[in-house]
Amino acid sequence: MSGGGDYLAAAFLVFFALLLVYVVIMAVRMSRMERELAELNEIAARRDDDGGGDRDRDPVEVPTS
């Protein structure tokens, strides 16, 4: 390869490596969010089985700016 071809190949390799790192990071974040969502669903299911918990309380109004 010529000098320009070597730089082009190196640029593609760097881009591919960065893309691979990005995909891995997103996969890890997504799996963590799925675990947290499953845990929240489990908590909600237990809360429903227990009779609703705080459902008898008045709703809280959230002030808007």
Q: In words, what does this structure look like?
A:
The chain is mostly helical. It has one helix at 3-49. It is built from one helix and no strands. The longest helix is centred in the middle third of the chain and has 47 residues, at 3-49. The mean pLDDT is 87.
Keywords summarizing the entry:
65 residues; mainly alpha; 1 helix; 72% helix; 0% strand
Per-chain topology:
Layout lengths: L2 H47 L16
**N-to-C SSE series?**
H
Please estimate the helix content. over 70%
N-to-C CA distance: 62 Å
Largest sheet: none
Task: Please provide a brief summary of the model.
By secondary structure, the chain is mainly alpha-helical.
